[in-house]
Amino acid sequence: MRATLMYGAGDVRVENLPDSAVKLPTDALVRITASCICGSDLWPYASMKPEDGPARMGHEFIGIVEDTGSEVTTVKPGDLVVAPFAISDNTCEFCREGLHTSCAHAQANFWDTEPEEGCQAEAVRVPLADGTLVKLPVTADSALIPSLLTLSDVLGTGHHAAVAGGVDERTRVTVIGDGAVGLLAVLSAKRLGAEQIILMGRHHARTGLGREFGATDVVSARGEEGIAAVRDLTGGHGTHVVLEAVGNMPAYEQALGVVRPGGVISRVGVPQYEEAPIGFGSLFRHNIRLAGGPAPVRAYIEELMPDILDGRIEPGKVFDTTTDLDGVPAGYQDMADRRSLKVLIRP
Amino acid sequence: MRATLMYGAGDVRVENLPDSAVKLPTDALVRITASCICGSDLWPYASMKPEDGPARMGHEFIGIVEDTGSEVTTVKPGDLVVAPFAISDNTCEFCREGLHTSCAHAQANFWDTEPEEGCQAEAVRVPLADGTLVKLPVTADSALIPSLLTLSDVLGTGHHAAVAGGVDERTRVTVIGDGAVGLLAVLSAKRLGAEQIILMGRHHARTGLGREFGATDVVSARGEEGIAAVRDLTGGHGTHVVLEAVGNMPAYEQALGVVRPGGVISRVGVPQYEEAPIGFGSLFRHNIRLAGGPAPVRAYIEELMPDILDGRIEPGKVFDTTTDLDGVPAGYQDMADRRSLKVLIRP
């Protein structure tokens, strides 16, 4: 089968590899019908050292179950399924609390750290299939596939940012980042009723989609100028919630600048730093809280899917490019160059 | 009048200064009948440079109103009052939300940064008297005075830690620090119904009081050994909430070690660091949240006072030493040497 490998920064290849297959009684084999490239894939694409490669790529997919292990009961060959970016058993104490990304099962993992599987491929072996896979009530050629595919990661991640930040109808929200997660954080904040949603981003087409998703204001300036603009829009105090969907230090510093006393910075962009200011002069003085982490998107699928099926939300609009597996290397470069917002792959 | 001044690390003096007096129509002058030394006073006592002194000291008191400005309406001469460690108007948008430590009024301040007033003294000018002072329904010689004095800071701060951490009857809690705030964080967690309360502290008399306040377990080991002990007590995963009542980096690192995935570190010890680990390997990976800050104790007085008046809680037990103003310099040294837990001052 064909699958995507990253050999190092800027070096993505699609190669023939041995077919994935069921190994354990709890596995399923899924033939992938839709996958995509994630903003988080761009971090290794910018910095991966050749000695850390080659790595299998991709953590989002929809596909058709082709085979199941003897213990799998919730899906069967022929079912169309979606998978979260994290493998979980959906039964441990953390999963029961809705924190599937901290699943206690020995086989729980992120696709990104599964050594021999990746979702930018023709097929994938899915561990803990009963916990990980969710059946979709449509066919593989449905026009809803792009939106349903966002349940794998970017919609659930934007929703997690908003939930972890406590967004409700009394909150003003700043969203930092105009990538797919940032835009779906806007959609999620709107869905949860936020009073004001300020999107910080510079890319005109993206911020336009952000307005369509519910942003009430767009601030294109960065740094001190951007912070001043958000403060101007909020009576001087900043917003109750900041959804930080980038993950680098300038984004964190921006969040510190626009958050209101007593407010929350909710991070879903994977931090590219370990140490950061959290002392008296940054978080502590005004009781600023910090929340977020890898989104337990499995916990949100049942809640979010009906809104897609009923057409109330169209998160699939974040896909502005579609390609086959051959086009994946170019898709990485297009996303890195910000020519594409998010690339849909039809293997 | 006599008042306490710190000239530098280890150098506290009680001197005669000009009498405090009402200056603004919103001021009150209060004759102090009970004050105390705070664990946070020990930070400058350990490190203050002589060029930063002399500084007026003390931010907790009960006293009798002696004079009021023309606009003061809620207290009158002869009233016994308690004051929070932060001056606030109790009417701005932040005060109305219960975040009095972020009061937007130009005169809002911490006593510790009021240049010409301090509460380890015979009297004090209280700015924004209507917002800051709360009348007490007892006399100055009541046996409840020590407990009521903790409404100024340490009880409200322990309570804030627990509230900001979301403690309820479903939570397991670790409290880091066996100072007055840590012990009253134990009491507060117990009051809010916590299922398990693990106190990390090494001082036998203090942890004994902690057990009396509600600690179910005491861990005296620190560092990796202490972390392992807490994990042993919690099925391996740590506690939902960690109340961090120290403020130095070892305490923060201990908090990271004992917090459960999806849990909260609630800090009320003033951080003695600015940068700290918050990236993928510390907070982010398991959706650990960070909360806390200077406690808006003014917001909690009405809720906590009845429990003291009715004898349901006795937070005043944290005072193990009483002195007059002359004994204040020795009181600092006793607290620094951990011979006294908390020193009550009867000026």
Automatic annotation (TrEMBL), chains A, B:
Keywords: Metal-binding, Oxidoreductase, Zinc
InterPro entries per the UniProt record, alphabetical: ADH-like_C, ADH-like_N, ADH_Zn_CS, ER, GroES-like_sf, NAD(P)-bd_dom_sf
KW Zinc (keyword) present: yes
Short name of one Pfam family: ADH_N
Cofactor requirement: Zn(2+)
Record-level Gene Ontology MF annotations: oxidoreductase activity; zinc ion binding
Residues in Enoyl reductase (ER) domain copies: 8-345
CDD domains: FDH_like_ADH3
Superkingdom: Bacteria
Any coiled-coil regions, as ranges: none
Keyword hit for Chaperone: no
Family matches, as PROSITE patterns: ADH_ZINC
Alphabetical list of PANTHER family matching this protein: DEHYDROGENASE, ZINC-CONTAINING, PUTATIVE (AFU_ORTHOLOGUE AFUA_2G02810)-RELATED (PTHR42813:SF2), ZINC-TYPE ALCOHOL DEHYDROGENASE-LIKE (PTHR42813)
Similarity annotation: Belongs to the zinc-containing alcohol dehydrogenase family.
Protein name per UniProt: Zinc-dependent alcohol dehydrogenase family protein
Source organism per UniProt: Streptomyces griseicoloratus
Lineage of producing organism: Bacteria, Bacillati, Actinomycetota, Actinomycetes, Kitasatosporales
